[in-house]
Amino acid sequence: MKSFLVGLQFLTRLRLDTQTEWKDEDFGKSVTWFPVIGWIIGLLLCGVFFLIRPLGSPLLIGFILVISELFITGALLLDGLMDSADGLFSGRSKERSLEIMKDSHVGAFGVLSVLLIVLLKTFALASADTALYFVLIAMPTLGRLNLVISICEYPYARPYGIGKSFSAYRSKNAVFYAFFTAILPAVCFGLDYIILFSAAILFGLYLNSWIVEKIGGTTGDTYGFITEITEAFIAFLFVLLVKGGAWHI
């Protein structure tokens, strides 16, 4: 239970425990729970959607949902997205890219990445129509599944850092449990969810491999990059397939 609370407190603003200092081992053990925390984020977003549905404006509803997720998560992963975008798209050496990612200043690629992600999520959610509950569960759950895979299956690029704690102390069975908990929503959503589940994993594997090729491994910042890009990809893919008539919900 302690590891779950650590993960919940790290990935969201939810505080169910008064403890504010944790050991490195606690961070590592919390990795197993990340998809479950994704469920919780998704359920909270479903609650927000239920309350704002009467607004009747798809674009406004989509934007409010995107902002709501940033509020729930504290925009921690979005910060990683910005830092990663500045480093990964800088065109510099691995060493220099890592230095850029560590710099607290946000560059042009960081700003552009946030704008693109927020806009893509907003327009995708605005186009999801009555299937929004489905998408709101799938996005954070599958995003955090790819986060677990990134932590457990790829080398860490730095000799130290908070991301290193997750990588070094995670459970040996973390990926197995993450797969199991991340696929459970298929009980409610069926084959449609399994399609997105499979696509998310393939996309995440490609993205992680690209990152490792660019900077020699993953970092705490790229964890945020992976999660945010996966969420946007899931929202976009869902709308693309639905609007394209590939399958219907």
Task: Write up what this structure looks like.
The protein is mainly alpha-helical. The chain has one domain. 75% of the residues lie in helices and 0% in strands. The chain is built from 13 helices and no strands. α8 (132-153) runs parallel beside α12. The N and C termini lie far apart (36 Å). The mean pLDDT is 87. Pfam families: CobS. Keywords: Cell membrane, Cobalamin biosynthesis, Magnesium, Membrane, Transferase, Transmembrane, Transmembrane helix.
Q: What class do helices, strands and sheet pairing give?
A: mainly alpha
Count of helical segments?
A: 13
- Tell me which oligomeric state these chains represent: single chain
Low-confidence parts lasting 5 or more residues at pLDDT below 50? Answer: none
Helix and strand pattern: HHHHHHHHHHHHH
The dominant shape is globular
Pfam family, one: CobS
Pathway: Cofactor biosynthesis; adenosylcobalamin biosynthesis; adenosylcobalamin from cob(II)yrinate a,c-diamide: step 7/7
Membrane topology: Multi-pass membrane protein
Organism: Dialister invisus DSM 15470
Secondary structure elements and their pairing?
Elements: H1 2-11, H2 24-30, H3 34-52, H4 58-73, H5 76-88, H6 94-102, H7 108-127, H8 132-153, H9 162-169, H10 174-183, H11 186-189, H12 191-215, H13 220-243
InterPro entries: CobS
Catalytic activity: alpha-ribazole + adenosylcob(III)inamide-GDP = adenosylcob(III)alamin + GMP + H(+); alpha-ribazole 5'-phosphate + adenosylcob(III)inamide-GDP = adenosylcob(III)alamin 5'-phosphate + GMP + H(+)
EC number: 2.7.8.26
